[in-house]
Every structure is written in structure tokens, then in C-alpha cells.
Amino acid sequence: MNELELIERLTAGLPRNASTRVGCGDDCAVLDFGGMDSWILFKTDAVVSGVHFDSVAAPEAVGHKALGRCLSDIAAMGGWPTHALVTIGLPVPFDVEWVQRVYRGMQAMAAEYDVAIVGGETTASPGAMFLSLAVMGTVPRDRCLLRSGARPGDAILVTGDLGGSLVSGRHLTFQPRLAEARWLATHFEVHAMIDLSDGLAGDLRQVLKASGVGAELLASAIPISAAARKAGGGVGGGERMGAQGKTALERALTDGEDFELLFTMPASDVVRLTDTWRGQFGGLKVGCIGRIIEGCGLHLRGVGFNRSLDLDGYVHFQGT
Ligand SMILES: [Mg+2]
After folding, report:
1. Cα(242) to centroid of ligand 1, in Å?
2. Gap from CA of 195 to ligand 1 centroid (Å)
3. Which of 88, 124, 137, 152 lies 20 to 30 Å (CA to CA) from residue 209?
């Protein structure tokens, strides 16, 4: 059983209450307490030593990543974070200085986005060190972006360059796209949004599933990062493979932890978006990589081929 199958099994029939507007299955839960212009966003996420970082990672970067992952999910809803709780599990004995440096990294990012860290829990861990965060945020009621809003005919866009985040170390230093997502939600009719944590193909599939649609990607439009090109060799359909047998294009499609935004919007708005984007976020790319179609499935088009894409996103573990 893989992680997605386990989540599906565990979340079936979980209790909801009157304030639960969106429960499991999106980047954040959406809660409506009434009487406010905004909804509350609620999210938890964890980083585990040996899974999300290794022993050579700078402790500040571990703290940065732990909070950044949650903030990226708040961004994916078009929201802004407000508060965080931190649970840390430590093998005994532990290095106090190392733990304090992890907190310094987390605090620096929290300060940057005006997130208050308002409590938490420390515990001994018989296994690996882990850091689990719960983050709250807000989103204007009429600007909340879900995975389920993609419509046939929409253009599919992504920010930044994709792939190679683990080999380049970018997974420890990325900045959550909070300002970009809020700007998009404010100025454009964005239909669906998700942050890219498990790989373009896997995450897009979540949008397609939630929206009941299919998609066609244009191979030449996928923005492949320099790290993915270097690690993956060529960009062709199977030749010149790099480490782990992936081409550069396959890396951009399936490598996890890019923490960029993927969103869909009316195709007629794409030119206005790419034009005004440059004035706002000139240092960051945004580009159209394909379109939403009727039906289901994910197809990849290139010169002389149009194939159904069976590449999965990054799957964290295999269980029985
Ligand atoms: Mg997410």
C-alpha cells in the first residue's frame, strides 16, 4: 500500500462538524466560524530525519523547511498564515545547540511572514528526530482556491523551474509562494490551485481527480530546472538517462519538493497574466504548460507523440 492509498483508507468517514467547509483532501482544511469576511485555514505537516533531510543539512534549514512546507500549503489556498504550533521529537541524548539552531531557522521564516509561534510540545523519540507543525491562516471567503475548481478549457500554469530540488538542496531553502498566490487570487479568476510537493504529475493528478477532468501537457513547455537537466542528462524520451534512470523531463514531471504553484485559469487571461506578472515578480518565471480537457487522465504531447502519462509523483513509502 502506498501513502495515497493509506490516506484514502484513513480519511474515509472522518467526523466533520458544522464549521467544516473543506475537510481532508485539499492543501488545507477550510473552517467557517461565521460572521467574518475570512475563512480559517488549518494545516499540519512534519519533517523527519532521514526522510525529509539528512544529517549534513544545516539545522537552520531544517527549521526553515518544516515551516515552509506548511506555508506553501497555505499559499496554495490563496491564504496568509497567522499562527503555528510546533511539536519536536528528539532522540536522547540530543545536541541542545543543534535544536536551538533548528528553532532559529523556523523563527526567521516565521518573522518574515508575520507568523506567531504560540505553543507546542517536546517529546523524546525512540527513533528519528522529527518536527511537526500545525499552522493556521486566513483567506477571504470569496478568494479561497481549491483543487476542485479546474474546468475544461482552462490553461494550466506553473511558477518557477521544476525538478532536481533534492539533488540541488533547494528543498531546504525554498521560499513559499505566499505573495504570488495572494496576488493571483486577488487579480485573476484562478479556478484551482495546488502547491507542488510530490511532483508535477502526481500533484496535477490530485487537481484532476478533485475536479473530475483530464489534462494535456506540452512536453516542450515544462520548465526544467538546471539541477534536473544536470542530474537527468537529456530531455528526450528515454535516451541519455541520468542517475535513477530518469530523463531531465521525467525529473521535472516527477521529482518532489519543488514547492512551486500549479494553477488553472481561463485560457483567455494567460497573456494578461504573464504580462503583468513580470512587473510584480520579475525574478520568478510563470508559464502555461498545458490545458484542462473533458474526461480523465493525464496526457503528454510532444513532437510526434501524444502518450498517456503513467509516471507517478514521489511516493514516500511502500507498506503491505
Ligand atoms: Mg500541498
Report:
1. 28
2. 5
3. 137
